[in-house]
């Protein structure tokens, strides 16, 4: 845990506990560590409701942890489950529920039990997919989140050691049937582990390789952060400008990663674009992009010697209802705050393709704020029963709207550059 510090005095930790050997061992070890420092642990079990016995298993985990004096909560994945890509949907739901629980409890540190064998499998899987440096660095020990940090303290610990720890304590654990299902690539890789180890590709060595690649990734990321601060302009309206000729002068790996960061920051989505598609866009940009393209929820639009990277209108989130006194993030890009005394029936949503003409009409010919035409449909608008109540980023507020929407600013899920805090440029931090 010490390499993942610093922690506050009396640290409060959350641990994701499925009931398997690795997560149970982590919960016990984390509780011991936290108590020695005057802190506490909250164990969180996500019940995906995908198997008939999942709820009973989650309750049994709670009983085991209760016997150790560890607080426990079950988080249920409610609602209909998708027929396609169920594993990915379950993973997204799991991390959403865990994050919401941490935010509600004011806990800054969520521990997950990925271990050395998991790290080795991740490296091999990503190698098979043709991943670049990001993918081959496998799982990071620490990842910042909207509410705090996700921590993986067991990445250098083998699975066998965790199981031996539980056996020594006489602690049983849940056997997940999916760990024997060879429909999953990870399970098939485990079957090959002995042969790979015989050729020198042990979990320990593969984990070391991932760590060395992560070290290289950190060095390249520092170059990307500096390039972002020097060469990218991010506007409060949520779009970016970049000169392709500047991109072409950067080392290719730096340019690719800068482009990927821009797409994540502006697009507001959680999925990094596939490397092959990113490389095609990079090649088109450095050769001189002539027509607009889309990737990762963004439009890339050539404008003179620059390109504008803005949100793809068709991928925007639908309008959301705004209750008085609430603060929300919309479309992964903007944060809005509504006054406590606001009237009900307000919604926040994109201006859409007719937004420019509608706002111009409402403003009676007054000039709009200077925002590129391709960006305007992606801007947020505040709506009531009469239509557009406010489009603050275009300079329009119907009478009294300024008292209703007390805050609206760009707040992307993905930071572009921490380096920018010393640069004076308009960068999101």
Brief characterization of the structure:
Keywords: ATP-binding, Cytoplasm, Ligase, Nucleotide-binding, tRNA processing. By secondary structure, this protein is an alpha+beta fold.
Per CATH, the class of the largest domain reads: Alpha Beta
Q: Could you name the CATH homologous superfamily of the largest domain?
A: HUPs
Number of domains: 3
Shape: globular
**How much helical structure, as a percent, in the residues?**
25-40%
Give a verbal description of the structure:
- This protein is of the alpha+beta class and 429 residues long.
- It folds into 3 domains: 2-201, HUPs (Rossmann fold, 3-Layer(aba) Sandwich); 236-314, Uridine Diphospho-n-acetylenolpyruvylglucosamine Reductase, domain 3 (2-Layer Sandwich), CATH 3.30.465; 317-410, no CATH class.
- It is 39% helix and 19% strand.
- It has helices at residues 21-35, 54-67, 86-105, 116-128, 133-136, 159-169, 185-191, 193-198, 203-231, 244-249, 252-267, 275-288, 355-362, 401-404, and strands at 12-16, 40-47, 71-76, 109-111, 142-144, 149-151, 233-234, 240-242, 293-295, 298-303, 306-311, 320-322, 327-330, 334-338, 346-350, 380-384, 387-391, 396-397, 405-410.
- It has a 6-stranded mixed beta sheet with strand order 3-2-1-4-6-5. The protein has a 5-stranded antiparallel beta sheet with strand order 7-8-11-10-9. Strands 12-15-16-17-18 form a 5-stranded antiparallel beta sheet, covered by helices on one side.
- The protein starts with 11 loop residues before the first strand and ends in a 19-residue tail after the last strand.
- The model is unreliable at 418-429 (pLDDT under 50).
- It catalyses: cytidine(34) in tRNA(Ile2) + L-lysine + ATP = lysidine(34) in tRNA(Ile2) + AMP + diphosphate + H(+).
- Residues 13-191 form the tRNA(Ile)-lysidine/2-thiocytidine synthase N-terminal domain.
- One of its GO terms (biological process) is tRNA modification.
